[in-house]
Write a structure and sequence with these properties.
With about 375 residues, the protein is of the alpha/beta class. It folds into 2 domains: about 10-45 and about 260-375, 60s Ribosomal Protein L30, Chain: A, CATH 3.30.1330; about 75-245, no CATH class. It is about 55% helix and about 10% strand. It is built from 7 helices and 6 strands. It has helices at about 10-15, 50, 75-130, 135-185, 190-245, 295-305, 325-345, and strands spanning about 20, 30, 280-285, 310-320, 355-360, 370-375. A 6-stranded mixed beta sheet has the order 1-2-3-6-4-5. Helix 3 packs parallel to helix 5 (about 190-245) and helix 4 runs antiparallel to helix 5. The two termini are about 30 Å apart. The relative contact order is 0.14.
C-alpha cells in the first residue's frame, strides 16, 4: 500500500497505517488485534528543528587584551591610577578564568552530546527493523544514554553558576569605569596622570564590552542547552516505550506539538455531537493486547505535522448490548482502555494539555472502542 501525500490530512494519516482495517469511507484508520507491522514501514519525517540533534552553542573566545603598564608620577592621582590599574588586572584575570571555564564546558557538552546521539542511534537501529520487547542490550544502552544526558543537564547548572560569577564581574567593571571617570575630577594631577588615565579608561571600556558579550552569549548557551535537554528527555522517554515494545516509534510528540493551542482544553470538556465529527483513529479492543501504539503514534505525528496546535479528544465508546451489568462492566473496561491510550500518548511526549478524556455509548459498535478526534 502506498500513500498519496496529496490527499487530505486525515486521508494521509489513514493510509500510513498499513495492515489495518478501514471503515467504509476509507478515511479513518481502525486498529484491531491484527499486527500493524505488515508491509513497508513508513516513518514520519523529522522537522527542521529535530534534524539538528546537537545543541547549538556559541563559539566566541572572550580573552581580555591585558592592561598597559604605567610610569609612577609621584602624585596622589598617579597612585590612584595605579590602584585602579591593579583592580582592572585582577578583574581581567577573573574574566580570563571565566572564559576558560566556558570553553571547557562547551567542549564537554558537545562531546557528551555526540556520545549521547551515538548511544541512541545504536538503540534505534535494531528497533527500526524490530527486536524483542525489553531487549536487555537496548535497556543497558538506554540507561547509559540517560546517564550521558544527565551529564549534559549538569553542565547547565555549571553554566548558570558561571553566569552569576560573570554578572558579578560585570558589576565590578562598571564600578571601576565610574571610578576612573571620577578620578579626572581630582586635583593635584599632572598631564601624565591624565594620559595614563585615558589609556586605562579605554581598556576598562573594552573590558566592559567583552564581559557584556560573554554574559549574553553564556545566557544564550544556557537557554539553548536547556531546550536541548528538555527535547532529548522527551525523546528518551518515547525511546524507553519503544524498547519496552521492541519497535521504533519516532521522536517525541512534544517536539511536534509546539505553540499554544487557542482552544480551551479541559478533561471535563464535552466532545459535542460525535455524529458530526470524523475520528482520526479508531481502536477496536476486540481481543487482549491490541498492538495499536505504533500506528497511533504515526497518526498523531502526522496530524501534528500538518496542524501543530492540534488538540486531541480521546473518547471511550461502550456498546449498548447485553444486560445492565454487562453494560456497566463494558463501560468500566472501556474507560480503562481510554486511560491507557491517554497514558501512552503522554509517554510518547504529547503534552497533557493537548488531551481530553471522555466517554459515551453506542448501539453501532460490537466491542469496546476508543476514538481519537482532532480539533
Amino acid at each position: 500500500m502506498k500513500t498519496n501525500r496529496t490527499w487530505s490530512a486525515f486521508a494521509g494519516v489513514a493510509l500510513l497505517l498499513t495492515g489495518c482495517e478501514f471503515t467504509d469511507d476509507a478515511l479513518i484508520p481502525s486498529l484491531t488485534g491484527d499486527s500493524p507491522s505488515g508491509g513497508e514501514r513508513i516513518e514520519i519525517p523529522a522537522s527542521a528543528a529535530e534534524a539538528n540533534r546537537l545543541p547549538t552553542l556559541g563559539a566566541s573566545n572572550f580573552q581580555p587584551e591585558g592592561v598597559t603598564a604605567g610610569q609612577p608620577t609621584g602624585t596622589e592621582v598617579g597612585r590612584r591610577v595605579d590602584r585602579l590599574r591593579d583592580d582592572l588586572g585582577r578583574m581581567q584575570l577573573s574574566v580570563s578564568n571565566d572564559n576558560s571555564e566556558l570553553q571547557t564546558l562547551r567542549a564537554q557538552t558537545i562531546a557528551d552530546a555526540r556520545g549521547y546521539q551515538e548511544l541512541t542511534a545504536r538503540i534505534r537501529a535494531p528497533l527500526q527493523v524490530g527486536t524483542t520487547p525489553g531487549n536487555p542490550n537496548l535497556v543497558a544502552g538506554w540507561n547509559e544514554a540517560q546517564v550521558t544526558l544527565d551529564r549534559i543537564a549538569d553542565s547547565v547548572g555549571q553554566m548558570a553558576a558561571l553566569s552569576s560569577k560573570v554578572a558579578n564581574d560585570s558589576a565590578l567593571s562598571a564600578f571601576i569605569l565610574e571610578s576612573v571617570r571620577a578620578t579626572y575630577g581630582l586635583t593635584g594631577a599632572v598631564d601624565e596622570d591624565h594620559r595614563q588615565l585615558a589609556v586605562l579608561e579605554d581598556e576598562v571600556n573594552r573590558t566592559v564590552v567583552l564581559i557584556d558579550r560573554l554574559l549574553n552569549e553564556l545566557n544564550e548557551d544556557i537557554a539553548r542547552q536547556t531546550n536541548y535537554v528538555s527535547r532529548e528527555r522527551s525523546d528518551l522517554t518515547v525511546l524507553s516505550v519503544a524498547v519496552k515494545n521492541g519497535e521504533l516509534f519516532g521522536t517525541s510528540l512534544a517536539n511536534r506539538a509546539f505553540g499554544n493551542a487557542a482552544a480551551s482544553r479541559s478533561s471535563a470538556s464535552t466532545v459535542g455531537n460525535l455524529a458530526n465529527r470524523r475520528p482520526l483513529v479508531v481502536i477496536r479492543f476486540d481481543r487482549p493486547n491490541v498492538p495499536y501504539q505504533e500506528p497511533l503514534f504515526t497518526a498523531v505525528s502526522e496530524a501534528l505535522n500538518r496542524r501543530p496546535n492540534s488538540v486531541f479528544d480521546v473518547v471511550s465508546i461502550v456498546p449498548q448490548r447485553g444486560t445492565p451489568a454487562q453494560v456497566a462492566l463494558n463501560a468500566n473496561q472501556a474507560r480503562r482502555n481510554a486511560e491507557q491510550v491517554v497514558q501512552n500518548l503522554s509517554q510518547m511526549g504529547l503534552p497533557s494539555d493537548r488531551l481530553s478524556l471522555n466517554s459515551t455509548s453506542s448501539g453501532a459498535v460490537a466491542n469496546n472502542e476508543v476514538h481519537i478526534y482532532v480539533r
